[in-house]
Amino acid sequence: MYTGIDLSYHNGTVNFSGVRDAGYRYIILRAGYGKNNIDQAFERYAAACVNLDIPFGIYWFSYALDKEMARQEARFAIEAVRKYRSRCLIAYDLEYDSVRYARTNGVHIDRELATEMARVFCEEVTSAGYIPVLYSNKDYLKNYFDLDRIDAYLWYARYTSGLSDSEKLSCAIWQKSSSGKVPGIGGKVDVNEFYMDFEKDDPSQENTPAASQPPACNLHVLQFQKAANADGYRDMNGLPLSEDGLDGPKTRYVRKKIALKAKKSGMKISVGSSGELVKYWQRRTNEILGTSIKEDGLFGKETRSNTGALQVKLNLTKDYIAGYNSLSAVFYN
What we know:
The structure is a single chain. This protein is an alpha/beta fold. It folds into two domains: 2-194, Glycosidases (TIM Barrel, Alpha-Beta Barrel), CATH 3.20.20.80; 219-331, Orthogonal Bundle (Muramoyl-pentapeptide Carboxypeptidase, domain 1), CATH 1.10.101.10. The protein has twelve helices and eleven strands. Helix 10 packs across helix 11. It is elongated, with a radius of gyration of 22 Å. Residues 206-215 have low confidence and may be disordered. One of its GO terms (biological process) is cell wall macromolecule catabolic process.
């Protein structure tokens, strides 16, 4: 058994290093909801997990009105996670808000329909090579889902000090709190106990080999490489960087040549550096600081201010210049 958490954009800025170092071994991210609405923080959270080698799965909050819509939601979920993970858990999440939404659209979700929607969602997940999981609580297990017809592991939400023996035997994941306190995250967090290892080919078997994963590239490095190439930077051989997400000697060589900054004349700050690398830098400062400055590729007053704030946050020298050390730091935060 090990402990993990689940997150959505409601959790805001997350220090994933802090979460990992506090011993939380698995994260379930909300990839999206309904008709391909991607969670606003999913890409950022998923990239951080990949970069820090934190295992994660996803869930999709359902607003399906029939079986085919549920099947389509599964496809949206698979497509969202595919570029990050070739295999992981994908959970179907049908809750009270799902039922209310259906009611406003003239659809009554009863036990039969809820079961069928969960069944086809999980069927689609399995067909794509991912691990199907059903999120539910005690009420929904009684009134909405027939588990005998749904081929999936159970993620059971029950906020209590402990589970009965029968409950423990029936679930693979226990969501035991919605008000946990976790280092690296402000506010309340959903905390889960995992009774199965979802990094294995068969989570129910303790000694099966771990599922193979493609070599992980650092997506922030990859984005940097693309931006540097677009801005005309070249390696020591005069060639564009390989866009492989690996921070090797050639990428480091290029990074040493970069110093993104504003122009400063007396007390006046004006636009200095510009281009795709500045856009990349603006995006990363927004993601890390939770700000929303323009990502326009122009290093002016706002970008300079964000640069200083980020350097303070990451314990770097506050020189307002995005150079080698600052660029290196945003690869891993």
